[in-house]
Amino acid sequence: MSDTPTAARPETAGVVNPPVIILIEPQLGDNIGKAARAMLNCGLVDLRLVRPRDGWPNERATANASGADIVIDNTKVFEHEDDALADLNRIYVTTARTRDAVKPVFTPRGLAPEMRANIGKGEKIGVMFGPERTGVRNEHIAMADAVVTVPLNPGFTSLNLAQAVLLIGYEWWQAGVNVPDYQMMMNDSFPAAHDEVARMLAHLEYELDESGFFRVEAKRPAMERNIRNIFNRMSLTHQEVQTIRGMVSAMRGAKHKPKPKT
């Protein structure tokens, strides 16, 4: 994860109309910019501001967006919440506090498939965030179809604006991409064949035997198993096997050189 800006592209994970992000009375341009950056990280490009305290456009927002210009340049500003929400079919509001209203409550992970299903039906979706200092008010919750609450440490649930946007956006993005939870980065190499590893181990064990490593014959089978377990657990590449064999050969040659003075 880098702070270096890269060429921004409006990738939306195959969704024509990704969710709209609505910020109610955002206070600092810095926070708007960081939220815009978080949005584009997750393929969200439609940002709407309701009564931004410091006006718009805002140089601090552009600076903190770190290249998410497509979000900043297309940001829409509204004086009233109703106007910002007018074209949306379904609205979700984020809050950490329990309210009196009876509403469905989603976690960000539960919300993501819900939003994708509704967008798949042709609906336009929005997620609303309140002011940094106070969060959303009761009237904002009344405007929404459902509430979104992030399950965090009950003793400290405070999030800054960009963090909140990122949590919603991240789950949205992950619900639409197929990325394995684990993969080995191979670069230009490829996994070593079983026979390659077996020959490397035979080479290593031969040299260890020649050097007197297996001093106690009764312990030799267990020691060999341990050595094989170590290397087989590594998922070695072809290049790594060649490097290890070169190291073993080099050490054999070094045995015939005089030892350096200490």
UniProtKB/TrEMBL annotation:
Alphabetized UniProt keyword annotations: Methyltransferase, S-adenosyl-L-methionine, Transferase
Q: Where is the tRNA/rRNA methyltransferase SpoU type domain?
A: 20-170
List this protein's GO terms for biological process. tRNA nucleoside ribose methylation
List the InterPro entries. Alpha/beta_knot_MTases, RNA_MeTrfase_TrmJ/LasT, SpoU_MeTrfase, tRNA_m1G_MTases_N
State any GO CC term.
Answer: cytosol
Q: One GO MF term, please?
A: RNA binding
SUPFAM superfamilies assigned to the protein according to its UniProt record, in alphabetical order: alpha/beta knot (SSF75217)
Signal peptide positions (record):
none
Q: Which family does it belong to?
A: Belongs to the class IV-like SAM-binding methyltransferase superfamily. RNA methyltransferase TrmH family.
Protein's recorded name: rRNA methyltransferase
